[in-house]
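User: structure tokens for this one?
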Amino acid sequence: CAIAAAFLDGYLNIAGESALFFVGILIVALLGGVAPAALSAVLSGLLLNYFFTAPRYTFTIDEPDAAITQVVMLAIAVAVAVLVDSAASRQREARQASREAELLTLFSGSVLRGADLEALLEKVRETYSQRAVSLLRVSGDEERVIASVGEKPCTTAQVADTAIEVGDDEFWMLLAGRSLPARDRRVLTVVAKQAAGLVRQRELAEEASRTEAIEKADELRRALLSAVSHDLRTPLAGAKAAVSSLRSDDIDFSDHDTAELLATVEESVDQLTALVDNLLDSSRLAAGVVRPELTSVYLEEVVQRALLSISRGATGSSAADLDRIVVEVGDSMALADAGLLERVLANVVDNALRYGGDGTVRVNAGSVAGRTLIN
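Assistant:
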């Protein structure tokens, strides 16, 4: 109105000036919507009538054409504003539907892929412009937040701006920021169910892993008992035979024979003691009673202690068998429990001596990919 009155009034008639006002109304309709467009049309009609329609500086209209022009301006402005507002509303709904579809697709795939729950909750927070999102689990009187993202997440449903419950009341998705309308709540109900399904899937996977570990441990235990049962029978049979011979009244043994039989009994008892000690140590390790204390140890020192225990008959092999052992570990070191490593090496070398034939038993060590390999 100011521009038209100051610069264009001498060049344009009422038709041209009305066109300029109409352009302004269209711009307001495109940017502001129905209410601002209607207000702009009314104000434009009043300004155009007062400053440019004869008689000027009054609200009287002499020509019917001018009155019709102002009414048409108002009608067109409202119509354009309604169309623009409808298009903008559909565009917003389309964007919202696209975000919801993306969110549902993401959560649906997450159950199959086992995605990170925190990352999915962060996607919910971004999609709905929330300050924080958390997943609450209710078990009896206990309420526990399983996962949360954002600042100051809600820990109870009572303080949440939006609380979405899963059907069994076990899980709740809590949102903090602004209260969401019913449409968003329907979508979030589906999302919350999928999040709860992801949590249950994790728990089932962990339970399956524990079951698998128990089955493997049980299988290993059965294999160990099967192998140890043979080792137990051998020294028991030897000790039984020697003791039965010594107690026999039908044979008079010489001192040398008696000493050999007693040595057989002692060797058999030593073997049994070593087997029982190994079984007890294995049970303690499996039960977590014995926990390895890791320190840096020299393998040469540990191997020599293991060979010393073999020479004392702690494993079943005799001291004469030590001549078949060649130790080539150099100055290698390892991070291990020295006592447990000694027992392991003693048992492995003893098995090699007893079941590996009459060949040489070699103990080697070296560094492989940052670890110490003993063979």
